[in-house]
Amino acid sequence: MSEHEVARVKVGIVSCSGEEIPEGTISRLACRKVLDELRPGRTVTICLPLFIAAGQEERAFTAKFPTITVDGCAKRCAQRSTEALSGKPAASLVISEILCAEQCNPPVNRRNLTKHERMIVDVIAEKIAQTVDEVLS
Amino acid sequence: MKMPTDKVVVIPCSGIGKVYGALSREIAYELAERVRPDTVLLTCLPLLMIADEQATQLVTENPVITIDGCPLGCAHKCVESRGVEVAKTFQSISFYVAHKDHKPEGVAELDETGRKLAAIAADELAPVVDELAGGRVK
């Protein structure tokens, strides 16, 4: 399969790393769930800071794949960094906004997640998977 | 040269694809939440990528420890990209090399052995934090 053909069947997911905030942990875990369980084979990822640390190949990530950014908070680091260093994402999700729309209590832990926080991971993962399908449709 | 401060900023790898990225992050959480909760501050690495004013001020005014998950050294490079000198830099794999009986597993989240290794690593880093917090290391 050529590089262009791969790009038509895969979506790049760029997650907020959010070490400082609980929503960052939600973002990382939800993205991994999509990559490993919900849409394996149809999604790839790149570490966000690799855009700075690595070379042109990483910076051309969005040229190779349509990209979904997943941010933990309204500062939208993933979206803004991707736009600045690689290209415009096909879709951008913000966890705090999704939780607000779903009237869901926000997470409070950065690790050792509670049952409620695990449920949030599942909700966000499903939202990302749905967005993957929309981008590929 | 930074002025002496009683806070130390720890910035781990942001990776979500490798076990040593997860180990870096867990070491940072151990330092910030258990080992030195009154001293260690965390900030999101990507905040530095977008030149967030508050995050940039934090790493400019306080000594910074980076803990990277792979040789690409994203955490170290991102801090330096803001014109800030990193006080101490580590790679999380070095803690496994020193404690081969604790092989970490897990990418999204570490297994129990990985969490134990993170706790050991954080304990070993405590003197480094204390020295930086005392302003004796520039």
Structure description:
The complex is a heterodimer of chains A (137) and B (138). Chain A has helices at residues 3-9, 22-38, 50-53, 56-59, 61-64, 77-85, 95-101, 115-136; strands spanning 11-15, 43-45, 67-71, 91-94. By secondary structure, chain A is an alpha/beta fold. In chain A, α2 links the parallel β1 (11-15) and β2 (43-45). Chain A has one domain: Rossmann fold (3-Layer(aba) Sandwich), CATH 3.40.50. By secondary structure, chain B is of the alpha/beta class. Chain B has one domain: Rossmann fold. In chain B, 49% of the residues lie in helices and 12% in strands. A 4-stranded parallel sheet of chain B has the order 2-1-3-4, sandwiched between helices. In chain B, α1 packs across α6 (112-133). The N and C termini of chain B lie close together (7 Å). In chain B, 48% of the residues are buried. The model of chain B has no long low-confidence stretch (mean pLDDT 92).
Summarize the structure.
The complex is a heterodimer of chains A (137) and B (138). Chain A is α/β, with parallel strands linked by helices and 137 residues long.
Topology:
The complex is a heterodimer of chains A (137) and B (138).
Chain A: H1 3-9, E1 11-15, H2 22-38, E2 43-45, H3 50-53, H4 56-59, H5 61-64, E3 67-71, H6 77-85, E4 91-94, H7 95-101, H8 115-136
Chain B: E1 8-12, H1 19-35, E2 40-42, H2 45-49, H3 53-61, E3 64-68, H4 74-81, E4 88-91, H5 93-98, H6 112-133
Parallel strand pairs in B: 1-2, 1-3, 3-4
Task: For the structure shown, list the relevant keywords.
heterodimer; A: 137 residues; alpha/beta; Rossmann fold; four-stranded parallel beta sheet; 8 helices; 12% strand; B: 138 residues; 4 strands; globular
Shape of chain A: globular
> What is Rg of chain B?
14 Å
What is the total number of structural domains of chain B?
A: 1
Number of helices of chain B: 6
Structural class of chain A: alpha/beta
Strand content of chain A: 5-15%
Order of helices and strands of chain B: EHEHHEHEHH
Low-confidence stretches of chain A: none
The profile of the biggest β sheet of chain A is:
4 strands, parallel
Beta-strand share of residues of chain B: 5-15%
Largest sheet of chain B: 4 strands, parallel
Mean pLDDT of chain A: 90
Q: Can you write the helix and strand succession of chain A as a string?
A: HEHEHHHEHEHH
Distance between the termini of chain B: 7 Å
- Please report the number of helical segments of chain A: 8
Would you count the extended β strands of chain A for me?
4
CATH class of chain B: Alpha Beta
Biggest chain-to-chain interface with counts: A-B, 32 and 32 residues
Cα-atom radius of gyration of chain A: 14 Å
> Which assembly state applies to the chains in this document?
heterodimer
CATH architecture of chain A: 3-Layer(aba) Sandwich
